[in-house]
Amino acid sequence: MEFSKMAMNSIQSIREEFPRYDSQLHFYIDEGDVFPKVFNHFKNAIKFFKPSEFVVFDIRFSNENFRIKCLASLFLYYIEDINDLQTSIIVFNESHSKFVSILKLEYSFEVVSWQAS
């Protein structure tokens, strides 16, 4: 988590925010309406990794957490088939010099990408 905070607060990070709350009408927008846009943006941000680069991410399956490592090209190819990606996910490379994440916050989703300089 500290890694994510540091990266998000750096000037190299790119953030895209997707509101979950309508402040004028004072109600939460259905996640089913917002998340497809978030997920599409996330899929485009994954192209930030080189296809031959290994990426690491966590999934939850049968009430257990698993850390997975695979090629970025395979992750992108199979991303639609990975059912247990959570609404908050961080995908990073082995050297921790790049990451892309979806963060579910109180009033919005954020897609953040970062690369060390």
Order of helices and strands: HEEEHEEHEEE
What is the overall number of helices? 3
Mean pLDDT across all amino acids: 85
- The rough form would be described as globular
The helical percent reads 25-40%
Summing up helix and strand content along with how strands pair, one would put the structural category as alpha+beta
Number of domains: 1
Proportion of strand residues: 35-45%
Q: Any idea what the radius of gyration is? A: 15 Å
Query: Cα distance, first to last residue?
Result: 20 Å
Let me know the number of strands: 8
**Largest sheet, order of strands side by side?**
1-8-7-6-4-5
Low-confidence stretches: none
Report the sheet with the most strands, covering strand number, pairing sense and barrel closure: 6 strands, antiparallel
Lay out the secondary structure.
Blueprint: H1 2-8, E1 14-19, E2 21-22, E3 27-28, H2 31-46, E4 54-61, E5 64-71, H3 72-78, E6 89-93, E7 98-104, E8 108-115
Antiparallel strand pairs: 1-8, 2-3, 4-5, 4-6, 6-7, 7-8
Question: Can you tell me about this structure?
Answer:
With 117 residues, the chain is α+β, with helices and mostly antiparallel strands. The chain has three helices and eight strands; from the N terminus they run αβββαββαβββ. The protein has helices at residues 2-8, 31-46, 72-78; strands at residues 14-19, 21-22, 27-28, 54-61, 64-71, 89-93, 98-104, 108-115. The strands form two sheets. Strands 1-8-7-6-4-5 form a six-stranded antiparallel beta sheet, sandwiched between helices. Strands 2-3 form a two-stranded antiparallel sheet. A hairpin with a 3-residue loop joins strand 7 (98-104) and strand 8. The model has no long low-confidence stretch (mean pLDDT 85).
